[in-house]
Amino acid sequence: MTVVQTEIPGQAMAKSVVETKAGLGSERRPSKVAQAIRAGEPFEAEVHDELAGETAILTAEKFSLWYGQSRALFDITMKLPKGKVTALIGPSGCGKSTLLRSVNRMNDLVDGVRVEGAIMLDGSSVYSPSVDVIELRKRLGMVFQKANPFPMSIFENVVYPLRVDGERRKAVLTEACERSLRAAALWDEVKDRLKDSALGLSGGQQQRLCIARAIVADPEVLLLDEPCSALDPVATMRIEELISEIAERYTVLIVTHNMQQAARVSQFTAFMYLGRLVEYGTTQEVFGRPVLPETEQYVTGRFG
Ligand SMILES: Nc1ncnc2c1ncn2[C@@H]1O[C@H](COP(=O)(O)OP(=O)(O)O)[C@@H](O)[C@H]1O
Ligand SMILES: [Mg+2]
Q1: pTM for the full model?
Q2: Ligand (nearest to CA of 9)
Q3: Ligand nearest 274 Cα, by number?
Protein backbone atom coordinates (compact mmCIF):
# COMPACT_ATOMS: atom_id res chain seq x y z
CA MET A 1 0.00 0.00 0.00
CA THR A 2 1.32 3.46 -0.80
CA VAL A 3 1.68 5.89 2.02
CA VAL A 4 -0.29 9.00 1.24
CA GLN A 5 1.28 12.19 2.50
CA THR A 6 -1.27 14.53 3.92
CA GLU A 7 -1.18 17.43 6.30
CA ILE A 8 -0.93 15.98 9.78
CA PRO A 9 -1.61 18.36 12.66
CA GLY A 10 1.00 16.76 14.92
CA GLN A 11 3.82 16.84 12.38
CA ALA A 12 5.39 19.96 13.86
CA MET A 13 5.39 18.19 17.20
CA ALA A 14 7.20 15.18 15.74
CA LYS A 15 9.91 17.52 14.58
CA SER A 16 10.27 19.23 17.91
CA VAL A 17 10.58 15.90 19.72
CA VAL A 18 13.61 15.07 17.60
CA GLU A 19 15.13 18.51 17.99
CA THR A 20 14.72 18.52 21.73
CA LYS A 21 16.60 15.25 22.00
CA ALA A 22 19.40 16.45 19.76
CA GLY A 23 19.59 19.67 21.70
CA LEU A 24 20.06 17.79 24.95
CA GLY A 25 22.85 15.74 23.43
CA SER A 26 20.86 12.61 24.25
CA GLU A 27 22.49 9.33 23.39
CA ARG A 28 19.20 7.56 23.02
CA ARG A 29 18.46 5.86 19.75
CA PRO A 30 17.28 8.28 17.08
CA SER A 31 13.61 8.92 17.04
CA LYS A 32 12.70 6.27 14.47
CA VAL A 33 9.04 7.05 14.40
CA ALA A 34 9.26 10.78 13.97
CA GLN A 35 11.94 10.32 11.31
CA ALA A 36 9.94 7.79 9.37
CA ILE A 37 6.84 9.93 9.51
CA ARG A 38 8.74 12.99 8.33
CA ALA A 39 10.31 11.01 5.50
CA GLY A 40 6.93 9.55 4.56
CA GLU A 41 8.24 6.04 5.15
CA PRO A 42 6.26 3.22 6.67
CA PHE A 43 7.68 1.69 9.83
CA GLU A 44 7.01 -1.32 11.99
CA ALA A 45 5.28 -0.73 15.30
CA GLU A 46 7.29 -1.85 18.32
CA VAL A 47 5.20 -4.79 19.48
CA HIS A 48 6.52 -6.46 22.61
CA ASP A 49 6.97 -10.23 22.73
CA GLU A 50 4.39 -10.65 25.52
CA LEU A 51 1.61 -10.09 22.99
CA ALA A 52 2.58 -13.24 21.14
CA GLY A 53 1.25 -15.46 23.93
CA GLU A 54 -2.22 -13.89 23.84
CA THR A 55 -5.29 -15.12 22.00
CA ALA A 56 -6.71 -12.36 19.81
CA ILE A 57 -10.43 -11.63 19.79
CA LEU A 58 -10.07 -8.66 17.45
CA THR A 59 -7.33 -7.93 14.94
CA ALA A 60 -6.58 -5.01 12.67
CA GLU A 61 -4.52 -5.77 9.59
CA LYS A 62 -2.95 -2.82 7.80
CA PHE A 63 -6.05 -0.86 8.55
CA SER A 64 -6.16 2.71 7.24
CA LEU A 65 -8.88 5.33 7.26
CA TRP A 66 -9.37 8.60 5.44
CA TYR A 67 -11.82 11.40 6.23
CA GLY A 68 -12.13 12.77 2.70
CA GLN A 69 -8.56 13.69 1.64
CA SER A 70 -7.22 13.57 5.15
CA ARG A 71 -5.75 10.32 6.37
CA ALA A 72 -6.41 9.57 10.04
CA LEU A 73 -5.12 5.99 10.38
CA PHE A 74 -1.99 4.52 8.79
CA ASP A 75 -1.67 0.76 8.35
CA ILE A 76 -2.69 -0.18 11.87
CA THR A 77 -1.83 -3.80 12.57
CA MET A 78 -2.65 -4.97 16.08
CA LYS A 79 -4.42 -7.68 17.96
CA LEU A 80 -6.61 -7.28 21.00
CA PRO A 81 -6.00 -9.95 23.65
CA LYS A 82 -9.14 -11.83 24.57
CA GLY A 83 -10.36 -11.40 28.14
CA LYS A 84 -7.91 -8.60 28.93
CA VAL A 85 -8.13 -4.84 29.33
CA THR A 86 -6.12 -2.92 26.75
CA ALA A 87 -5.57 0.81 27.04
CA LEU A 88 -5.23 2.97 23.94
CA ILE A 89 -3.17 6.07 24.65
CA GLY A 90 -1.63 8.90 22.64
CA PRO A 91 -1.81 12.65 22.09
CA SER A 92 -5.09 14.27 21.19
CA GLY A 93 -5.91 13.83 17.50
CA CYS A 94 -3.70 10.76 17.01
CA GLY A 95 -6.67 8.62 15.95
CA LYS A 96 -7.73 6.75 19.09
CA SER A 97 -11.45 7.47 18.74
CA THR A 98 -11.27 6.88 15.00
CA LEU A 99 -9.79 3.44 15.59
CA LEU A 100 -12.41 2.61 18.21
CA ARG A 101 -15.22 3.73 15.92
CA SER A 102 -13.72 1.74 13.06
CA VAL A 103 -14.11 -1.44 15.05
CA ASN A 104 -17.89 -1.22 15.33
CA ARG A 105 -18.27 0.65 12.05
CA MET A 106 -19.55 3.84 13.62
CA ASN A 107 -17.46 5.69 11.03
CA ASP A 108 -19.87 4.39 8.38
CA LEU A 109 -22.10 7.23 9.51
CA VAL A 110 -19.53 9.89 8.58
CA ASP A 111 -19.63 11.23 5.01
CA GLY A 112 -16.54 10.73 2.89
CA VAL A 113 -14.92 8.05 5.02
CA ARG A 114 -12.85 5.46 3.20
CA VAL A 115 -11.05 2.49 4.69
CA GLU A 116 -8.40 0.04 3.53
CA GLY A 117 -7.11 -3.11 5.16
CA ALA A 118 -9.09 -5.30 7.52
CA ILE A 119 -10.52 -5.56 10.98
CA MET A 120 -11.45 -9.07 12.07
CA LEU A 121 -13.70 -10.01 14.96
CA ASP A 122 -13.24 -13.62 15.98
CA GLY A 123 -11.84 -14.37 12.55
CA SER A 124 -14.48 -12.76 10.35
CA SER A 125 -14.16 -9.41 8.62
CA VAL A 126 -16.05 -6.53 10.18
CA TYR A 127 -16.13 -4.72 6.81
CA SER A 128 -17.35 -7.63 4.73
CA PRO A 129 -20.43 -6.60 2.69
CA SER A 130 -22.42 -9.43 4.23
CA VAL A 131 -22.00 -8.13 7.78
CA ASP A 132 -25.17 -6.99 9.50
CA VAL A 133 -23.99 -3.81 11.22
CA ILE A 134 -26.72 -3.95 13.87
CA GLU A 135 -25.64 -7.48 14.78
CA LEU A 136 -22.02 -6.40 14.78
CA ARG A 137 -22.68 -3.53 17.19
CA LYS A 138 -24.40 -5.94 19.55
CA ARG A 139 -21.16 -7.87 19.72
CA LEU A 140 -19.23 -4.67 20.45
CA GLY A 141 -20.67 -2.58 23.28
CA MET A 142 -19.55 1.05 23.20
CA VAL A 143 -19.44 3.79 25.82
CA PHE A 144 -18.54 7.37 24.97
CA GLN A 145 -16.74 10.23 26.64
CA LYS A 146 -19.95 11.93 27.63
CA ALA A 147 -22.70 9.78 29.08
CA ASN A 148 -25.59 9.60 26.62
CA PRO A 149 -28.63 8.20 28.38
CA PHE A 150 -31.75 8.25 26.23
CA PRO A 151 -34.66 10.42 27.41
CA MET A 152 -36.55 7.49 28.87
CA SER A 153 -36.68 5.56 32.13
CA ILE A 154 -33.67 3.89 33.72
CA PHE A 155 -35.23 0.50 32.97
CA GLU A 156 -35.88 1.29 29.31
CA ASN A 157 -32.37 2.65 28.87
CA VAL A 158 -30.78 -0.56 30.08
CA VAL A 159 -32.96 -2.92 28.05
CA TYR A 160 -32.98 -0.74 24.92
CA PRO A 161 -30.64 -3.01 22.91
CA LEU A 162 -32.85 -6.00 23.71
CA ARG A 163 -36.02 -4.13 22.70
CA VAL A 164 -34.39 -3.16 19.41
CA ASP A 165 -33.71 -6.83 19.01
CA GLY A 166 -37.45 -7.54 19.35
CA GLU A 167 -37.39 -8.90 22.90
CA ARG A 168 -40.78 -8.30 24.52
CA ARG A 169 -40.93 -10.86 27.32
CA LYS A 170 -41.25 -8.91 30.54
CA ALA A 171 -39.46 -11.53 32.64
CA VAL A 172 -36.49 -11.63 30.29
CA LEU A 173 -36.20 -7.83 30.23
CA THR A 174 -36.54 -7.55 34.01
CA GLU A 175 -33.91 -10.16 34.62
CA ALA A 176 -31.50 -8.63 32.09
CA CYS A 177 -32.02 -5.15 33.54
CA GLU A 178 -31.15 -6.26 37.06
CA ARG A 179 -28.19 -8.35 35.95
CA SER A 180 -26.68 -5.50 33.92
CA LEU A 181 -27.28 -2.87 36.58
CA ARG A 182 -25.65 -5.13 39.15
CA ALA A 183 -22.70 -5.71 36.85
CA ALA A 184 -22.44 -1.95 36.35
CA ALA A 185 -22.48 -1.40 40.14
CA LEU A 186 -25.60 0.74 39.90
CA TRP A 187 -28.37 -1.59 41.03
CA ASP A 188 -28.46 -0.60 44.70
CA GLU A 189 -28.67 3.07 43.84
CA VAL A 190 -31.55 2.79 41.37
CA LYS A 191 -33.50 -0.38 42.13
CA ASP A 192 -36.35 1.57 43.73
CA ARG A 193 -36.71 4.05 40.88
CA LEU A 194 -36.31 2.08 37.70
CA LYS A 195 -39.27 3.90 36.18
CA ASP A 196 -37.74 7.34 36.80
CA SER A 197 -36.09 9.23 33.97
CA ALA A 198 -32.43 8.37 33.45
CA LEU A 199 -31.75 12.05 32.93
CA GLY A 200 -32.21 12.62 36.68
CA LEU A 201 -29.13 10.56 37.53
CA SER A 202 -25.77 12.10 38.38
CA GLY A 203 -23.02 12.15 35.75
CA GLY A 204 -21.26 9.17 37.27
CA GLN A 205 -24.50 7.22 37.55
CA GLN A 206 -25.39 8.05 33.96
CA GLN A 207 -22.04 6.71 32.80
CA ARG A 208 -22.56 3.49 34.77
CA LEU A 209 -26.02 3.28 33.22
CA CYS A 210 -24.43 3.55 29.78
CA ILE A 211 -22.08 0.72 30.73
CA ALA A 212 -25.08 -1.35 31.87
CA ARG A 213 -26.73 -0.69 28.50
CA ALA A 214 -23.51 -1.55 26.66
CA ILE A 215 -23.28 -4.95 28.33
CA VAL A 216 -26.96 -5.96 28.44
CA ALA A 217 -26.73 -7.84 25.14
CA ASP A 218 -23.57 -9.64 26.35
CA PRO A 219 -21.08 -8.19 23.86
CA GLU A 220 -17.79 -9.89 23.13
CA VAL A 221 -15.84 -6.65 23.41
CA LEU A 222 -16.50 -3.46 25.33
CA LEU A 223 -15.17 -0.28 23.72
CA LEU A 224 -14.76 2.64 26.11
CA ASP A 225 -13.78 6.05 24.74
CA GLU A 226 -12.46 8.16 27.62
CA PRO A 227 -15.39 7.08 29.80
CA CYS A 228 -14.26 9.07 32.83
CA SER A 229 -13.15 12.32 31.26
CA ALA A 230 -16.32 14.14 32.31
CA LEU A 231 -16.42 12.67 35.82
CA ASP A 232 -15.12 13.75 39.21
CA PRO A 233 -12.44 11.65 40.97
CA VAL A 234 -14.91 9.64 43.08
CA ALA A 235 -17.14 8.74 40.12
CA THR A 236 -13.98 7.97 38.14
CA MET A 237 -12.78 5.58 40.84
CA ARG A 238 -16.12 3.74 40.78
CA ILE A 239 -15.92 3.32 37.00
CA GLU A 240 -12.35 2.07 37.27
CA GLU A 241 -13.39 -0.52 39.87
CA LEU A 242 -16.23 -1.47 37.60
CA ILE A 243 -13.92 -1.94 34.62
CA SER A 244 -11.75 -4.28 36.67
CA GLU A 245 -14.83 -6.34 37.62
CA ILE A 246 -16.26 -6.37 34.11
CA ALA A 247 -12.88 -7.42 32.76
CA GLU A 248 -13.34 -10.82 34.34
CA ARG A 249 -16.00 -11.54 31.73
CA TYR A 250 -15.31 -9.25 28.80
CA THR A 251 -12.50 -8.01 26.63
CA VAL A 252 -12.13 -4.27 27.12
CA LEU A 253 -10.49 -1.66 24.89
CA ILE A 254 -10.34 1.66 26.71
CA VAL A 255 -9.13 5.01 25.40
CA THR A 256 -7.80 7.18 28.16
CA HIS A 257 -5.69 10.32 28.40
CA ASN A 258 -5.08 9.61 32.06
CA MET A 259 -1.82 7.70 32.40
CA GLN A 260 -2.54 6.66 35.98
CA GLN A 261 -5.85 5.28 34.86
CA ALA A 262 -4.25 3.27 32.07
CA ALA A 263 -1.74 1.90 34.57
CA ARG A 264 -4.48 1.04 37.07
CA VAL A 265 -7.02 -0.67 34.84
CA SER A 266 -5.19 -2.27 31.92
CA GLN A 267 -2.91 -5.24 31.35
CA PHE A 268 -1.82 -4.08 27.88
CA THR A 269 -1.20 -0.61 26.49
CA ALA A 270 -1.04 0.53 22.88
CA PHE A 271 0.56 3.90 22.18
CA MET A 272 -0.63 5.71 19.08
CA TYR A 273 0.98 8.73 17.50
CA LEU A 274 0.06 10.63 14.33
CA GLY A 275 -2.38 7.97 13.19
CA ARG A 276 0.05 5.09 13.68
CA LEU A 277 0.36 2.32 16.22
CA VAL A 278 3.80 3.03 17.61
CA GLU A 279 4.39 0.76 20.58
CA TYR A 280 2.34 -2.01 22.11
CA GLY A 281 3.05 -4.24 25.05
CA THR A 282 2.14 -5.02 28.62
CA THR A 283 1.15 -1.92 30.53
CA GLN A 284 3.98 -2.56 32.95
CA GLU A 285 6.57 -2.58 30.16
CA VAL A 286 5.12 0.28 28.13
CA PHE A 287 5.08 2.51 31.19
CA GLY A 288 8.11 1.12 32.97
CA ARG A 289 10.50 0.30 30.14
CA PRO A 290 9.23 1.72 26.86
CA VAL A 291 11.40 0.86 23.87
CA LEU A 292 10.84 4.00 21.81
CA PRO A 293 11.64 7.56 22.84
CA GLU A 294 8.24 8.80 21.67
CA THR A 295 6.51 6.39 24.02
CA GLU A 296 8.73 7.36 26.90
CA GLN A 297 8.15 11.05 26.32
CA TYR A 298 4.43 10.54 26.23
CA VAL A 299 4.06 8.25 29.24
CA THR A 300 6.24 10.52 31.34
CA GLY A 301 4.07 13.46 30.40
CA ARG A 302 6.64 15.37 28.39
CA PHE A 303 4.38 15.83 25.40
CA GLY A 304 0.79 15.35 24.41
N1 LIG B 1 -15.73 13.22 11.59
C2 LIG B 1 -14.51 13.62 11.22
N3 LIG B 1 -14.31 14.27 10.06
C4 LIG B 1 -13.08 14.68 9.68
N5 LIG B 1 -11.97 14.49 10.40
C6 LIG B 1 -12.09 13.88 11.60
C7 LIG B 1 -13.36 13.41 12.07
N8 LIG B 1 -13.18 12.83 13.28
C9 LIG B 1 -11.86 12.93 13.53
N10 LIG B 1 -11.21 13.55 12.53
C11 LIG B 1 -9.75 13.82 12.45
O12 LIG B 1 -9.06 12.58 12.54
C13 LIG B 1 -7.91 12.70 13.37
C14 LIG B 1 -8.01 11.72 14.53
O15 LIG B 1 -9.06 12.15 15.40
P16 LIG B 1 -9.56 11.30 16.62
O17 LIG B 1 -9.71 9.90 16.21
O18 LIG B 1 -10.75 11.99 17.18
O19 LIG B 1 -8.32 11.43 17.62
P20 LIG B 1 -8.21 11.15 19.19
O21 LIG B 1 -9.41 10.39 19.62
O22 LIG B 1 -6.93 10.40 19.34
O23 LIG B 1 -8.11 12.50 19.85
C24 LIG B 1 -7.85 14.15 13.78
O25 LIG B 1 -6.99 14.84 12.91
C26 LIG B 1 -9.27 14.64 13.63
O27 LIG B 1 -9.32 16.00 13.36
MG1 LIG C 1 -10.90 10.84 21.02
Answers
A1: 0.88
A2: 1
A3: 1
